[in-house]
UniProtKB/TrEMBL annotation:
Cofactors named for this entry: Fe(2+)
Lineage: Eukaryota, Fungi, Dikarya, Ascomycota, Pezizomycotina
Record domain DPH-type MB: where: 5-61
UniProt catalytic activity: [3Fe-4S](1+)-[protein] + Fe(2+)-[Dph3] = [3Fe-4S](0)-[protein] + Fe(3+)-[Dph3]; 2 [3Fe-4S](0)-[protein] + 2 Fe(2+)-[Dph3] + NADH = 2 [4Fe-4S](1+)-[protein] + 2 [Dph3] + NAD(+) + H(+)
Name of the protein: Diphthamide biosynthesis protein 3
GO molecular function per UniProt: metal ion binding
Protein family membership: Belongs to the DPH3 family.
Signal sequence residues: none
InterPro entries: DPH3/4-like, DPH_MB_dom, DPH_MB_sf
Organism: Elsinoe ampelina
Superkingdom of origin: Eukaryota
Keyword entries, A-Z: Iron, Metal-binding
Pfam families linked to this entry: Zn_ribbon_CSL
Length: 86
């Protein structure tokens, strides 16, 4: 698998699609490497191109991913609201 790693790319150099919650980056074949936000949060670091065998390693820190703090705050706020009302 390591022989198919095309490059290491900083997540800041990738494009984020908030609607689909995926990061993508151009592949030399003309398609694009893709990796889902959920996969990144689970510690996955390999983005694949669906049209060829190339892969890239995404360099990132889980704490810097979008929505991480918002989701935690929303979850805490909703939980506290239920406890106070209950």
């Amino acid at each position: 698998m390591a022989e198919n790693i095309y490059d290491e790319i900083e997540i800041e150099d990738m494009t984020y699609d908030a609607t689909l919650e995926i990061y993508h980056y151009p592949c030399p074949c003309g398609d694009r490497f893709e990796i889902g936000l959920a996969d990144l949060r689970d510690g996955e670091e390999i983005a694949v191109c669906p049209s060829c065998s190339l892969m890239i390693r995404v360099v990132f820190e889980v704490g810097d991913l979008p929505g991480e703090e918002e989701e935690r705050l929303d979850g805490v706020g909703a939980g506290e609201g239920v406890e106070v009302a209950g």
